[in-house]
Amino acid sequence: MSQIKIFGYTDKISVKPGDDIGFHVSVDGTKKVAAQLVRLIHGDGHPDGPGFIEQEMPCPVNGEWDVQKQFTQVGSFLKVADPGNKLAHNGSFTLYAYIWPTLPDVGLRQALLGRWDCYNNQGYCLGINKQGLLEFWLGDGKEVDYVAAEVPLVAKMWYFVAVSYDASTGRATLYQESVANRYNSLLGKVSPLDYRSHVRETMRFKANNIPEVPFLMAGSQDWHELRGHFVSQAYCGKIDRPGMYGRALSREELDQLKSGKPPSPDGLLAHWDTTAGYTDNGIGDKVVDVSGNDLHAYGYNRPVRAQTGWNWNGRNDSFRLAPQEYGGVEFHADAMIDCNWKQTKKLRIPDDLRSGVYAIRLRADNSKQTTQELDEEYVVFFVRAKQPKSALALLIPTGSYLAYANEHLSFDAQIIQPMSGQPPIVSAVDIEMYQNPEFGLSTYDSYMDGAGVCFSSYHRPIVNMRPKFRISSMGSTWQFPADLSIVGWLEHMKYDYEVLTEEDIHLEGLSAMAPYKCIMTGTHPEYISERILDAHEDFVEQGGRLIYMGGNGYYWNVAYRDDEPWVMEVRKLDSGMRAWAARPGEHYLQTTGQKSGIWKNLGRAPQKLLGVGFIGEGFETGRPFRRMPDSYHRTVSWITEGIEGEILGDFGLAHGGAAGVELDRYDLSLGTPPHAKIIASSGGHTDNYCLSTEELLYAHPGVGGTQDYRIRADIVFFTAPNHGGVFSTGSIAFGQALPAYNFDNNISKLLANVVNAFIKPGPLPGGHWISNEKQWR
Amino acid sequence: MANLWKNPIANWGVKEEVDNAPTIPWTSPIKPWIETVKAKQKLYKVGRLRYYYKFPGHGARTWHRWRYPFTRRRILNIRGEYNAKSLRREKTILDRRPVYWVLSFLAMLMAPLFMPVSFESTLLNAGAVFFIYAAINLCWTLVIGTAGIFSLASMAIVGAGAYGAAYLSLTHGLPWWSLPMVGSVIGLVFGILIALPATRLEGFYYALLTLGLVELCRVYVIQSRTFGSATGGVYGADSYLPDGISELSELTISYYVCFVVMLVVLFMFRFIQGKRLGRILRMAPEKREAFAEATGVNYRWARIQVFIITSVVLGALGGVYASHFHGASPSLFSMDAVLLGLAMLVIGGIGRSEGAVFGTLVVVIIDKVFIEWGPLRLILIGLIMLLVVLFLKGGVFGIKQQFRAWRNKKKSENRSTRAEKGGEMLPEEATETHDKDQIFMRRFDKMQRDYLKTLVTEEIIEEHKRSPLGQHSEPLERLLTYFRRQPQSDKYAIVAIELYKSYRIIAMSGQRGVPPRVVEDKIYTSETEAYHAVFMRRVQDLLES
Fold first, then answer.
1. In A, which residues are within 8 Å of B494 by CB distance?
2. What is the DSSP letter of A319?
3. pLDDT surpasses 60 at A771
4. Residue B35 falls within a domain, yes or no?
5. Is A381-758 CATH 3.40.50.740?
């Protein structure tokens, strides 16, 4: 019997009672699974905490589900909508494109453009062969004939490539010329490389073009008896302004095309102007055919747009300034944005379902209560209130869940062990994910050609958005399961709360936040779109109270499409603790046209909203907070009411301290409100905690926790207009300290003091103690 | 305890952190750099002179590529590339054999023009014999080399074809052009008969059987009246030579006729060896049949096919033989004919067409040209064969490959005696390294390891055992930083079998899609224990490197 594996995802991440939610499930080794709706209370199984807690809920879809193995298309490509089969051209033709291959020498065949059926060997295609040579091939359904260029393509160099095929003589002529300039390619003029190649050969037969084969860019059609049609021979690299003529172009005509002149309309079948349709507010997945035949191409798995093109000359740094220089469409053979599985089950959220964190628990064998294997899956989703009634809301940082979704750091990143200061502890599901490209990548990973991953979506199983998951590299929980410690605290303290996701705020803006008096964030809300940040600011300014429960939050500027909010885009650049760096000229989000990077570099350091901002991370130890003298001031002393001693949180599920993992610090120079007070600060961090890169101008020794005073977490409080207020914990480990001693501890007490005050309408306590000090001691 | 490390966090009163820990005297990390400068290793200049011509690339010019008619095979298999040393565009002919074949054919074609007059008839005669034997050996090498059937009956099939054709020509007056056809029919029958036991017997036993068959044929034709036991053969078969021409013209014509015969057989060889049948057979060489069968290759059927095809061709060659020599003689079945043929194959290298042809050339020249040497030349052939068997793995044409393997062996022997283990790259190795950064990385790594080895002491190990995470003394921190920064491939990690209960050590693959491998069976019951076990493994690897 094969190993049973269950994986699933939902079509929506945030639903209200009455909404429909679809579950997409794929299994190995079984045909039936037992489904059960559960309310998730606590995730972390750390022995110092309450352990895993869930509540089984009645629900119409509970019971046995019929499930099947589903397949996932990996690799990004463009598919041309050609209903009239105009590109099934049986006469002479010419295919051309500017290309910037990143892995020509990978040893796998890569299709650039053509109608190629690689299962039946029919059609035609221009691509890169296993030896890394540009190659044109055609097939008649039985045999393949081909002509290859003379010299291998050099990686990360811009070329203009073409093949002109004369059907009457059978002659196919390859055209390969460099279009590298001082900026656009890896190598400069001083490398004595001759990139040119022109090869002519006579083909023995003609291509057989059947209507079923689509015209693809960066892929070709394949077939498998279980899967049916899919796309293989994916390409890694950029393609810029490709096209096809219905006649064989001469060398001189191709020279003209290479120079960037608009293609002559004589015999033009399609010219995909990859720069057409750009707007100031972003670029979609449609690549426009400007030949007049309207053979537009559509992206699958989101080919990256807004990338520098063959003619980028370094002067402009955004597609908004010079769209014509940003025609590069970047493809990756291992890109995976949307599993596109068939829906297994649909659920209408019952009206009486209380807002909270839910999951459909799928088990192969329901009698087995605990398992470390892959035969148990929690498909997580969040239920909002239909009409918000509570004063308190927990804001689920779905953007950051996406950013870290299925991260491969422990396996792929050489830098992770020195960063986290410990060997990783991986689990079965980590290994399963690493083995299988169908899980896709996170924005902490790189594609196999080394380019950073800028898109992430939740239309795929996200193994680390599961209640029992522990992040392998850091020896603690992280993101979703860590946030469940806050949920567990809210439940234990019997607060009347509702949940809300960042997606809701992105789509609805302030109106999603406004009904609440107090909103608590997750432990690590790092990825924030402009709309979400604006809504936060407006919420606090209009009298809302914000409890920032994390560290390194409100850090990256990210973007979502309104109609496809399940995909997030981020570009990591310039500065900040970043897993990769966007290439020169590619710093703007294709989704919105905004510059990405960290909010600090965009003029909105997190200190302006939260009073604190990122300063350092270390992951391997936690430290307690110690009260700061300001906490004794009567404006804020209510926060520490009932707490004895100066030390706060010398415990916790994340390495035994409430201050740890990632730390935020008060900084007037970055916009901490001038009246903010530091309630407590941590200290004595190890040297594994290093200053974050955006704080460093020059690298120098002594920026570790034992030598740099700035490395600390600050608990900061300040009041805002209209009785608003912000309380920031400044540490990721803060949330994981709540469950210690069965939620009966001073961190829990501190937070309860704040929440109790924040959910009360009217002015905050301590507001009158604001006169000048005239003291005797 | 003179050496005590004082924890900088001691004042903060953190529970897990010790105030101080025993440590070791400080030594400079720069020390290995200074010491290695003293060590002098003899380094040799490397680099190889380009003394031969290589075609440059076409650049902007269009390269018209031509193919053999009716195939998609290019005339020459050429690879365009950038010279790694200069980035110059070059073209390399990957397979130069077609060039050598064409030159050889030209030489064979022109040879009669340059033969010394006194020697001409001997040479022409030897040439014709060479072509016929080359053709026979091409078939034979297909059977032995490609198909892996140890048949010694090839000459017997030729003999049967020759006898049959000669006999029929004599009795029924068949014309010369029908003799190869008659021979091929006889070959087919013979082939099928001999192929049957091949499905049952293997290797040595089959060779013995075919040898017996040859002997049977010889005894039969010697004793049979029909086949001229009295005259020592069947003579008077119709010849392809026209009547009434000079002896020299006759010899010249036979020379060219036999040349064409060999060309035809070469084509047959190419079509079997280079197409599907040949590939199937080469997938299933001797002793690997089981593997081929497991992968779905029907090698038995392929072997029988190739055996029957070659038998037909051998039979036809018998017909040519009969027409060429005006008949057939029992010497065709003689033991020395079989052994001479075997010598030809072995000298050239079994399984390759050039081997079969070259081996035949060598043996025929010795046997037919240096006739005045007498029986000595047979000893010479035997000696050559002995030397080839003793010293060469694949005959004369296997020399290149064998030489390269031997040179590689010597190379690594030499390098291992000169290089310190795990040390710097030698110039020879550096020229083969594409990323020159790696050369320095190796140097740096060696220095680091030399230094770090001196830090591994009881105190440090004890310190790690006490607290694998947290602030560490300077020597331990240095060790840990080095370990953690290692590349991903084979880097240790931990797998949780059951969280908080059992852990095991694994090593990362460093290659996406390839799962980590389990390093050892031992189960650790806590994270701390597993952390320390990983550390101890890393220390051990460091000390062993």
1. 423-426
2. T
3. yes
4. no
5. no
